[in-house]
Amino acid sequence: MKVDPLAELEAKLFAAAREEQPEAELLERVLRAAREPARHPAALRSRSAPPASNRRVRASSSKLGWLLAAAALAAALGLAWLRSFERHGELAISAEHAPRQTQPAIAPSPSAPAVSAPVPAVAVPPRAPAAPAVKAEAPERTRPHPARATTAPQRASAPGSEPPAAPATLATEIGLLKQAREALREGDAARASSLLDGYDAAHGTALGAEATLLRIEVLSAQGHSEQARALAQRFLADNPDSPLADRARRLSAARGAASGVSP
Amino acid sequence: MWRVLRRAGLSGADADDATQQVFLVASRRRQELAQDKERSFLYGTALRIAANLRRGLSRRREAPESAAPDAVSAAPLADEAFDRRRARELLDELLSRLPDELARVLVLAEIEGLTLAAIAELEGIPPGTAASRVRRARAAFRELLQLHRDRNPFDGSLP
């Protein structure tokens, strides 16, 4: 078969662009501020040369509140953006950086054998934030509160609080969720479920909302429509104003339609 | 988003700054964000910030940052990473020659892999317009690429 060299070149150019990722530092800068604002007040700062830099992000400390709020919102809105496009393309601020983080050990290897997860009786997110339960084999798990995506700074800056013993960096959390999404997209719901379990076990909290929505899809893919629907409805009850709420509604509606139940 | 900003003509460092700015703006205006409009808002904000940054950069620069396409293709290849970098440079050069509206939809379609419906939503145009715009963008890009190929027949670094 004759190959069109122009098409080949075109594909190469686009592929090169798709492969390009921001440096992990960018992600870390945003995420560090979201997690530990008091410890990293300068987390959000321009890295470009002064003449070309964004002076707003390097403004006075009076703007620190905005920076922290932005970091928290970045986790929510950014993931909403990424998730919305996940079916169509790769992540912009990609979790490819996850392996380059300082705590990579908690990220399961992509090549790790998929754990055949039992049918999970998922406990939907409680209204009161609970300590993330490390899931072993117990089918019941406590989902991190989705709203933590926007409350992480407060949590991290609690008086006298120490950083979590082994917190997953947000980049690592994104990495886990990305792997789970890819597994789900490839039809391997069991592996996706296993990766989400890994997310829970790694004390992933900042992207709890994102993880919850993904869990809904995984449950649905595994045929657990009722559990998926219940989880979606609980998410909506707890997070009616979340940027991800609309997607949860659609998932809930889809699950309801699939199971013949009105959402 | 960072990739969109890069393809909008920003350097990596400027794309970093712009990414942060986008979320700063989103944070400030989050109360105004309508449901289902978050993506469009972020996209539109990103484009505006990119345009502002480019204007600022062009005022400060005497010479354009990007090399001419022929100069790009004349550089030797050292390894695969450099090969990819050169491919991106060539891509950016070709995109810069397209009208903005065509370059944007081409990036969304070919690099971000968005559907026509998603492109229409982000661009705020009807799906039919998005379809025809993507079609025109692909054709125009192909012509530019052919032109580059014709001018650089011995560039063995690219297929």
What order do the helices and strands come in, and which of them pair?
The complex is a heterodimer of chains A (263) and B (159).
Chain A: H1 5-19, H2 24-35, H3 64-86, H4 148-156, H5 170-185, H6 189-201, H7 208-221, H8 225-238, H9 245-259
Helix pairs in contact in A: 2-3, 3-4, 5-6, 5-7, 6-7, 7-8, 7-9, 8-9
Chain B: H1 2-7, H2 12-28, H3 38-60, H4 69-74, H5 80-97, H6 100-111, H7 116-123, H8 127-151
Helix pairs in contact in B: 2-3, 6-8, 7-8
Descriptive account of the structure:
The complex is a heterodimer of chains A (about 260) and B (about 160). With about 260 residues, chain A is mainly alpha-helical. Chain A contains 9 helices and no strands. The model of chain A is unreliable at about 35-45, about 50-70, about 85-165 and about 260-263 (pLDDT under 50). Chain B contains 8 helices and no strands. Chain B has helices spanning about 1-5, 10-30, 40-60, 70-75, 80-95, 100-110, 115-125, 125-150. Helices cover about 70% and strands about 0% of the residues of chain B. The longest helix of chain B is centred in the C-terminal third of the chain and has 25 residues, at about 125-150. With about 160 residues, chain B is mainly alpha-helical. Chain B is globular. Classes of the chains: A mainly alpha (about 260), B mainly alpha (about 160). At the A-B interface, α1, α2 and α3 of A face α1, α2, α3, α5 and α6 of B.
Name a few traits of the molecule.
heterodimer, A: 263 residues, mainly alpha, globular, disordered C terminus, B: 159 residues
Identify the quaternary structure here.
Answer: heterodimer
Biggest sheet layout of chain B: none
**Share of helical residues of chain A:** 40-55%
Unreliable stretches of chain A (pLDDT < 50, length at least 5) are 33-45, 49-70, 84-166, 259-263
Uncertain segments of chain B are 62-77
Q: From N to C, what is the helix and strand string of chain B?
A: HHHHHHHH
Tell me how many strands of chain A there are.
0
Written as H for each helix and E for each strand, in order along the chain, the element string of chain A is: HHHHHHHHH
Alpha plus pi helix count of chain A? 9
Q: Tell me the major beta sheet of chain A.
A: none
- The percentage of residues in β strands of chain B lies in under 5%
Largest interface (CB within 8 Å) is between: A-B, 54 and 56 residues
Q: What Rg of chain B do the Cα atoms give?
A: 17 Å
- The average pLDDT of chain A is 58
Shape of chain B: globular
Structural class of chain B: mainly alpha
Termini of chain B, distance in Å?
A: 28 Å
Instruction: Count every beta strand of chain B, where a strand is a DSSP E run of 2 or more residues.
Output: 0
- Helix fraction bin of chain B: over 70%
**Cα-atom radius of gyration of chain A:** 19 Å
Instruction: Output the structural class of chain A.
Output: mainly alpha
